[in-house]
Amino acid sequence: MTGRGRPRRAKSPDTKSANSKTIPEEVSLQNGTAKERKPKAQKKEESPLQDRTTEHFIVEISRQQSATTDNKKAPVRCTKAKKKTEQTAEEIRKTQPETPEDPLKATKVKRCVGKKATSPEEAAEETTKTQPETPKDPLKSIKVKGCVGKARSPGHITETPKETPRACVPPVRCGDREHPVLHTTLENLKIKRDERSDAAEVVNKIVKAIVEHLKEKSQSFKEIEPPLRTGSYYENLKISNPDEFDVMLPVPVDRVNVAPFGDDGAFYSVELKRGKSPLEKFQKTGGTLSASEMLKEFRDEVKKSVKQFTEWEVTKKKKGCPAVTLLTKYLPIPISLDIVLSIVVQSSWPPFTKEGIKIDGWLGTKVKQQYKRLPYYLVPKYEGMGTVECDGVLAKDVWRVSFSHVEKLMLLNHGSEKTCCEREGERCCRKDCLKLLKHLLSLLKEEDSSLTKFCSYHVKTTLLHACCARTKDADWRASSLSRCFLLLLGDFVEHLERGVLLNFFIPTQNLLSGPGLKKCRSLAQRIEAERDNGFPIFK
Questions:
Q1: What CATH number is attached to the domain comprising 458?
Q2: How far apart are CA 129 and CA 110, in angstroms?
Q3: DSSP letter assigned to residue 251
Q4: Could you tell me which residues come within 8 angstroms of residue 363 by beta carbon, excluding any fewer than 6 positions away?
Q5: Higher pLDDT, 439 or 37
Q6: Helix 291-305 and helix 193-217, axial crossing angle in degrees, nearest 10
Q7: Could you tell me which residue, 64 or 36, shows the higher pLDDT?
């Protein structure tokens, strides 16, 4: 017959079962008639289980599964062969490697769909056609695995990694559970409101008396300006007790020449220009304003002003210290008050500050410009031997530049967002981390007297640098206190190990040059030991 019917198949289980592959007909049209190909090859063909490769066999299984789904009227006589085939496929799957769970590997298979399947992975993909379809975009599966950054287009994925990327794992684990003692310690460091109020009242009273005395009964300091309250207490960084206060009393100078003393840019000699000034009596030969002589008279005037306050006493002068320190035991907690002499320079900041105060990414360029329009202060402080001479000026007669007023502004307005730590804003942990590090340093200094050259200003400078490195408020969330503290601790240890901590305003000055590298590394080891053991010093 032409164009009708098909050759009968052998009624054996191998050919009638669903596992056997039906050989398609090849029909050729000659002179408008179709000729059937003789099915002799079927009789000689062996079972596909004997001569086909594992890959082809799995492909056949998947095609048969699709066929059985579409054709619900499959003959019952093929059931035994089907079960046999499924058992064989199950054994073959056990001997094959598992399909990789890595979504990136699955991505690679999907991109090669157009090619002929020659690997077990590609063949296994065919068996999943009856399952719910996976997203066509391979990057969607990547996104489910973790926060690996901004999604890139498939064209940018040039190589499939062997393992799931771990970019979302922070360098320091969020350590609230690792160091619960930090929260307890921070709570214990809080100052009681009553103690704060009582201490502030006593300090304000004595400062007011000193200022009135200088204006009314002193010739050299009668032009003194209102006190500038700086330091940890007024920056809301005081810990444990309100026992230390710093108040700067600035003396204005209209016209001065300021020249650097040394190479680090922190110390300067001051020369008064022509014009009448109450400070002319402190000029040396050549016009240099002597810091040592001016501080000496200032100290004498302060002593006179506190004679009526019998609860206060003036402590012995410390070498190179710019302050007159008063001490009182009037309250249950002894209070130390530093009255610091300073001169106000109404001009551009020294050239050494050009590369400093890098707060553009943290507080903004406009804020930086506002700060640099402010005057700067010089305090009568020197380092080393006071008899060292440079360009005809003795070290004891030079002044050190101070930006404590700018430090106070930055720490009080420390957020990249203006609402940081405000009533309606989100709270950060910058100050809490600084308090903990200050407390750790003070405890270590109590245990080891060789660490006396390290001070809280080293810790404050470390925090300022850290704020410029981690600029966003989200980097300092209050809920991440342990993690942020460990990061700040790591910054401080790194500075100590290198023996380099640059002045935040004058990057040419190394604040750790005084203690020396050996002591710096010794302190770093002590801090690391505390960190590794869970801060037993806090317990």
A1: 1.10.1410.40
A2: 13
A3: E
A4: 410, 413, 414, 416
A5: 439
A6: 110
A7: 64
State how far the alpha carbon of 493 is from the alpha carbons of 13, 106, 268, 420, 508, in Å. 79, 44, 31, 28, 20
First-to-last CA distance in the chain?
101
pLDDT given for residue 151 in this prediction: 37
- In this structure, are residues 214 and 222 in contact, taking their beta carbons and an 8 Å threshold? yes
- How far apart are the C-alpha atoms of 270 and 268, rounded to whole Å? 6
365 and 246 within one domain: yes
Contacts of 500 (CB under 8 A, 6+ apart): 510, 512
Angle at 473 between CA 470 and CA 477, to 5 degrees: 100
382: which 2 tokens?
């020197």
Structure-block tokens of residue 368:
């930086």
Whole-angstrom distance, CA of residue 524 vs CA of residue 539 = 20
Per-residue pLDDT tens digits for 274-328: 767 889 889 887 788 999 999 999 999 999 999 989 889 999 988 888 999 999 8
Per-residue confidence at 389, pLDDT binned at 50, 70, 90?
A: confident
Which tokens hold the place of 185? Answer: 């310690």
Q: Mean pLDDT across the chain, nearest whole number? A: 75
Q: Please state whether beta strands 244-253 and 335-345 pair in parallel, antiparallel, or not at all (unpaired).
A: parallel
Cα 345-351-356 angle, rounded to 5 deg:
100
Identify which of 286, 276, 240, 235 has the alpha carbon closest to the alpha carbon of residue 255. 276
Tokens of 372: 């640099």
**CA proximity to 353, closest of 126, 198, 505:** 505
Q: What HEC string does 395-459 produce?
A: HHHCEEEECHHHHHHHHHCCCCCCCCCCCCCCCECHHHHHHHHHHHHHHHHHHCHHHCCCCHHHH
- Host domain of residue 522: 419-539
Cβ-in-10-Å burial (0-12, 13-18, 19+) of 97 comes to: exposed
What's the Cα-to-Cα distance from 523 to each of 194, 197, 466, 493, 511, rounded to whole Å?
Answer: 36, 35, 19, 8, 15
Tokens linked to 445: 């200094």
Tell whether 307 and 214 lie within a shared domain. yes
Q: Which two tokens stand for residue 156?
A: 């940018």
Structure tokens at 415: 């957020």
Phi, psi for 334 (deg, rounded to 5): -60, 140
Give dist(CA 387, CA 396) in Å, integer.
7
pLDDT of residue 102: 44
pLDDT band at 64 (very low <50, low <70, confident <90, very high): low
Domain annotation covers residue 512: yes
Q: Do β-strands 393-394 and 399-402 pair in parallel, antiparallel, or remain unpaired?
A: unpaired
Answer yes or no: do 386 and 454 share one domain.
no
Backbone angles phi, psi at 21, to 5 degrees: -95, 125
Residue type, 123: A
Are residues 211 and 249 in contact, defined by beta-carbon separation less than 8 angstroms? yes
Shared domain check, 409 and 434: no
The per-type count for the chain, helices as H runs and strands as E runs, is 17, 13
Q: Is there a single domain that holds both residue 408 and residue 425?
A: no
